[in-house]
Every structure is written in structure tokens, then in C-alpha cells.
Design a protein that fits this description.
It catalyses: Transfers a segment of a (1->4)-alpha-D-glucan to a new position in an acceptor, which may be glucose or a (1->4)-alpha-D-glucan. The chain is of the alpha+beta class and 663 residues long. It has 2 domains: 314 residues, no CATH class; 322 residues, Alpha-Beta Barrel (TIM Barrel), CATH 3.20.20.80. It has 17 helices and 25 strands.
Length: 663
């Protein structure tokens, strides 16, 4: 791989340009992709993206691009020289398109000898963005896109993660000013080669820009201030973490030299200028322009054209950031780790709830903390709703379902006045100091300062109220558009989860071995027949769907509140699942059900540890592309911006013992 801008900009041949149809109202644009990558024998550079010619992958994530490349999709680039690769293609655009067309794409390496699977570049989750914004008569004839290969292990890739780009560095106010920087600094929309101007779009993918700050450019041309102090040109953060600015440069001022700048958005104060012996450089001579425009001749079969060439330069953020004095030190941040059940407040019911996360977010913001790490919040009810054995947060019966203990009942819209009054009365009782003094808890200082949670009583009371709420308003909630949208997305796990819970209650145990024929697994056809609306079991099953919708709404609300306030919500990913769980019951082929996992003897435990979880059947998981893991992580991502992986070693090696082992 390489982080070098391509320098071989010659045409790669007319054969690679698709001749567009004759349409007198269309606008013709030729895209000339260029990148630099040192391949090995048999390897080729392929572009996969949202255009049909690029494979038609709307959101070119690494996973989707790999799949597309494996199936032969994408456009192959041609080798030019000096490790430079090129691809020329023509687009036909509808005039006045709104919103303006955007091309998303990603580079990958395909080995014709099949020595390795496709290797994708890194960068933003959904790939590169090529903005074709502008009125129809200002589309360039040729856009020459000079890209640097983005390594998946680069320093900047860390800051492209959701925690940084979506929360810590995200500034929603940037979008208000974003369009301004995309407007050309010279009103030369119909400029052509005779005007002696070249359009240059500078772009850089840099998420590490604090809220209230923006990136800018200073350089050697008039549009970039001619290196005069204070004369900087702000960039648009509309497509953050991508920063863009578009300028017109007279040919006589080429080559163009420039440096990146960090400035305050409101005051325009320059905070730091990129250092280093040499500045960035863009070369484009009149000969380059003439050659680029000659490519256009094969598309002159009709439609509007414009004798204007645009050079789009996508710079490497790593050296640009490392040379900025503002980023000399590594980024540092602090956070707090806490279980949700410990966030008790007067508004709760004897236990911390999802809504209490907001209060902690407010405190974190005042204290300057950037992250809240939580214990697992998934459902652990494998015995009965009020059994204390189910209070262990790492023994999940579902990797998707949330624990109803964390629901704030008073926040459920539409409760009757009578039910709401009863809820408030019980909440007051469970929150009262006197309640814990009258129970069996030891009366020591720790108990006084950190009151224990009466899990069985909290769950008994909440479950009863949720049953009443379902009877009162279940049909109304499940008829809402919000619920229907949730069910459509969650159906793949919600149906088996609801049936599992109903069978657990019916048989009095979550152990499928005691469910007769239903305990040996269930196919999709049987699952659908038992969970459809006309099923005799539907009412009992749909109660659990109703509860999960309420849990989803409240945790999602807390997550959005945290993100809006710049605080990352970090979820916990347990290494195992309970033997008596919906995942093991519905997907038994993905687990070694005759095995248990734990830890070998050590100084911490002389006899070792038996966690009781079945081990993963990694071979079976690999055969379907790890779809169970993908769906699990994808579902968690709507609530959490980062994950803690419990017992990371277990993903590479695990202590396994027979299921008959008791210790």
C-alpha cells in the first residue's frame, strides 16, 4: 500500500470511458479516478461504489465492498506507471438535480490468483464521498480525482470510529455553515480553458476537530490568501468528517502550494497552522487541462458540456494532522464505569433506570468526562421475573432483548391516572430509606451509604405494572407507526424471543430440555405459525414484544441525549450466553451445547472457574459469514457508540470443559 498522491495523470484510454446516450437536456461529466498503490503480481485495484458502473453498492462499507468484489462487481482500474492506477468514466446528469448527485465509493485490491480475499481500504464507514454539487451549467467537463489509499490501521482510522466522529468531535452547528464553503470563491461558473482558470477542490478526512472549530486552508494563490497572515479560507464540514473547499486558480499561479489550518468558526481566529518543511502541492499545467478536455470529445454526442476541468485532491490526514501543533499530543479523555442499576434516583423504582443515564450525562458534561461505560443491560430472566438468581447481568437469555428492570414506568405515555398513581406510590415505597431498614439487609455503614437493590421485589412490582399497562394500552401501542417500524427491524430476534419467554413461563423453566419436542429447536415455519396474530399464543407472546418496544424507546432516547451532549455511551459485550437462552435454543448449531466454558486454575481461583456458558462453534459461524455476530453488533450500535469486549482472550482461545462438569 501507499500514502502517495498519484502523479501520472495521463488518460488511460478511450476504451475505459462509457459513451453516454444522446440527451439534449443532460449534462456530461467525465470522472478520472487516480490513486497510487504498490501491488504484487496478480493484484488489481478495483473501485466499488454507488454508481451502476462501480457495482451499484449504495453504501460501500468494507463488508459490502468485499462481498461485491468477491462476486466480480466493481470497475477495474488500469495500471499507468510508477504504481499509479487510473479509471476514466462518463456520467450523464439531470440538470438542476436536487439534492445534488453524490458518488460514494471505496478502493479495494483483488488478487486474480486467489491467494487472498479482497483487501479494502479504510476511511469512513460508508466509503468516500464525491460531491457533484452545483447548478447544472457549472458542472465541470472533467473531474480528476486524485486519491490517496487509506490504510485500515492508520492513526486517523481510530478517530473515524462512532465514539469520536459521531459524539466527541461531532458539531451539529457545522452543517449550518457547511454550504458556504462549498460555494466557489470566484463567480466563474462558466469558466473554460480560455479563461486560464483551473478549479481545485481540496478535501481531507479529519474527524479530530473540536466542536466550535473548523478546518481551513492557506496557500500560494489569491483564493487562499497568498500566504498572508490571517487570510485563510474556511473549509466546509457539511460532510464531516470530510472537509472540503473549492477554489478557482489562475493557470499562472500553478503549481499550487498550501497548508491546512485549524480556526475558531465564530471568531475566525487561527489556532494552528500545519508545520513541516514542505507544503502540499497540486500540479496542473495547461497541457494537463488540454488533455483532460480531449477526453470529453468522445461524449460530444449531445447534451450540454462545459470546457472546465476540476482537480479534486483527497489528502492523507495522518501527516497533515501530525504536522499541526494543535495535535502534537495524543488525544486524552476520561470517563466513568457504572452499572445502570446503580444510577438510582427519586424518579426511579428502587433501581437505576435507562432514564437515569441522562442525569449522569449532565454530570459528565460538567466534569469534562467523555464516556460512560455500562454493564450489560440485556434480559437475564431465566427462572421467573422475581427470582434473585436472575440478577447476574452477564448471564443473558438474549443478546438483543433489554432487561425490563430498567424501564421507567412513569415515562410511559398513555398510562391511566389510576395506574400512574399506583406506580408512583410503589416507587415511593421502594425508594424510601425506611424500606431497607425494615428488611433483612445488614445495618452497616456501607448499607446506609449504598443501599442494596431488592431485585426480586423490584421485578415483582414492575412486572405486575407492565401487565396492567399492556392490558390498558397494548393494542394502541402496537398499532402505532413507531411500533410497526421497530417490529419490522427487530422481527428476526423478537419473534423467537417472545416465544421463548412464553414457553419459559408456561413450563416454569427456561431450560429447553424440559420442553418436550419444542425444546429440541424450532424451525422458522413453526415459529411463524405460533407467533402470528391468529395464533392462540399471540396475546401472551406479544406482551414481551410490547415490553421490548418500551425498553428500546427509553434506551435509545438516553443514547441520543448522551451523543447530543458529547458523551460516549459504551456497552458491554459478554463473552458468553446462558445455556438456557433463546440464542442457544433457536441457533443451537452455532454453539457447542455439550460443552461449558470458564477459566483454568490460577492464583485467583485454585479450582478454576465454570461459567456454565456453551462455547462457540466458530466453524459453523464462519460458514454463514458470522451473521449472528454481525446482527448482534449492528443491533447494539443503535444504542452504544463503543463496546467493551468481555474476556477478549476468549475470542482466540477458551477454557472448555464437558457439560457434565460441575466445577
Amino acid at each position: 500500500g501507499s500514502s502517495i498522491l498519484p502523479t501520472s495523470l495521463s488518460s488511460v484510454g478511450k476504451a475505459t470511458v462509457k459513451v453516454v446516450s444522446q440527451d439534449p437536456t443532460s449534462v456530461k461529466v467525465v470522472l478520472r479516478f487516480r490513486t497510487n498503490y504498490k501491488t504484487r503480481f496478480g493484484e488489481n485495484v478495483v473501485i466499488v461504489g454507488s454508481l451502476t458502473e462501480l457495482g451499484g453498492v449504495e453504501t460501500p462499507t468494507v463488508t459490502d465492498v468485499q462481498k461485491a468484489a468477491e462476486s466480480g462487481k466493481g470497475a477495474r482500474m488500469q495500471y499507468i506507471k510508477n504504481d499509479d492506477w487510473g479509471l476514466d468514466m462518463a456520467l450523464e446528469l439531470a440538470p438542476g438535480a436536487d439534492p445534488p448527485p453524490v458518488v460514494q465509493y471505496r478502493y479495494c485490491i483483488v488478487d486474480d490468483n486467489k491467494q487472498h480475499p479482497p483487501i479494502c481500504e479504510g476511511g469512513s464507514k460508508n466509503g468516500r464521498i464525491l460531491n457533484l454539487a452545483g447548478p447544472a451549467d457549472t458542472y465541470p467537463a472533467v473531474m480528476e480525482i486524485r486519491d490517496i489509499w487509506k490504510s485500515q490501521s492508520s492513526l486517523s482510522s481510530i478517530f473515524l470510529s462512532s465514539a469520536f466522529s459521531d459524539v466527541i468531535f461531532n458539531d451539529r452547528l457545522r452543517s449550518e455553515q457547511g454550504v458556504k464553503a462549498l460555494k466557489r470563491t470566484s463567480s466563474t461558473g462558466n469558466a473554460n480553458k480560455d479563461d486560464g482558470l483551473i478549479t481545485v477542490r481540496l478535501t481531507i478526512e479529519n474527524p479530530r476537530v473540536e466542536p466550535g472549530h473548523v478546518m481551513a486552508v492557506i496557500g500560494s494563490c489569491t483564493a487562499l490568501g497568498n500566504w498572508e497572515d490571517g487570510k485563510v479560507t474556511p473549509m466546509s464540514g457539511l460532510n464531516y468528517p470530510l472537509w472540503e473547499v473549492e477554489i478557482e486558480v489562475p493557470v499562472q499561479q500553478m503549481p499550487l502550494y498550501y497548508r491546512y489550518v485549524i480556526m475558531e468558526e465564530k471568531t475566525k481566529k487561527v489556532l494552528a497552522v500545519e508545520q513541516g518543511e514542505s507544503a502540499h502541492k497540486v500540479e496542473a499545467s495547461p497541457q494537463d487541462l488540454e488533455e483532460s478536455l480531449s477526453v470529453m470529445k468522445i461524449t460530444d454526442a449531445g447534451g450540454k458540456t462545459c470546457n472546465r476541468c476540476m482537480v479534486v485532491v483527497n489528502d492523507d490526514p495522518d501527516p497533515a494532522v501530525s504536522k499541526n501543533p494543535l495535535f502534537k499530543s495524543q488525544w486524552r479523555g476520561a470517563g466513568v464505569a457504572v452499572p445502570v442499576f446503580g444510577l438510582r434516583s427519586d424518579k426511579g423504582m428502587g433501581v437505576g433506570e435507562f432514564a437515569d443515564i441522562k442525569g449522569l450525562v449532565d454530570w459528565c458534561r460538567k466534569a469534562g468526562l467523555k464516556m460512560i461505560q455500562l454493564l450489560p443491560v440485556t434480559d437475564t430472566i431465566s427462572h421467573s421475573p422475581s427470582d434473585e438468581r436472575d440478577s447476574y447481568p452477564y448471564s443473558s437469555i438474549s443478546v438483543h432483548a433489554l432487561h425490563p428492570m430498567y424501564l421507567r414506568l412513569t415515562d410511559i405515555a398513555g398510562l391511566s391516572a389510576e395506574l400512574k398513581a399506583d406506580v408512583e406510590k410503589e416507587a415511593k415505597r421502594l425508594n424510601d430509606d425506611g424500606y431497607y431498614k425494615e428488611t433483612q439487609w445488614d445495618k452497616d455503614l456501607k448499607t446506609e451509604l449504598d443501599r442494596p437493590i431488592d431485585y426480586p421485589e423490584v421485578m415483582r412490582v414492575k412486572t405486575g405494572f407492565l401487565r396492567r399497562a399492556f392490558k390498558e394500552m397494548g393494542a394502541q401501542v402496537m398499532a402505532s407507526e413507531e411500533y410497526k417500524e421497530f417490529f419490522e427491524r427487530a422481527e428476526f430476534w423478537l419473534r423467537p424471543y417472545g416465544l421463548f419467554c412464553w414457553l419459559r413461563d408456561f413450563f416454569g423453566t427456561a431450560n429447553p430440555d424440559e420442553w418436550g419436542k419444542l425444546g429440541t429447536g424450532i424451525n422458522k415455519e413453526k415459529l411463524m405459525s405460533m407467533t402470528e396474530e391468529d395464533s392462540e399464543f399471540y396475546k401472551g407472546i406479544s406482551f414481551y414484544w410490547f415490553v421490548q418496544f418500551l425498553c428500546h424507546e427509553q434506551l435509545l432516547d438516553a443514547s441520543k441525549y448522551a451523543a447530543t451532549n458529547g458523551v460516549v455511551l459504551k456497552g458491554d459485550l459478554p463473552i458468553g450466553i446462558d445455556h438456557d437462552s433463546v440464542d442457544a435454543w433457536y441457533h443451537p448449531h452455532l454453539f457447542h451445547m455439550d460443552k461449558k466454558t470458564g477459566a483454568p486454575p490460577d492464583d485467583y481461583s485454585e479450582m478454576g472457574q465454570n461459567w456454565g456458558f456453551p462455547t462457540y462453534n466458530w466453524e459453523a459461524m464462519q460458514r454463514d459469514g458470522f451473521s449472528w455476530w454481525r446482527s448482534r453488533l449492528n443491533w447494539m450500535s443503535q444504542y452504544f457508540h463503543a463496546y467493551r469486549i468481555d474476556h477478549i482472550l476468549g475470542f482466540f482461545r477458551i477454557w472448555e470443559m464437558p457439560s457434565s462438569a460441575t466445577g
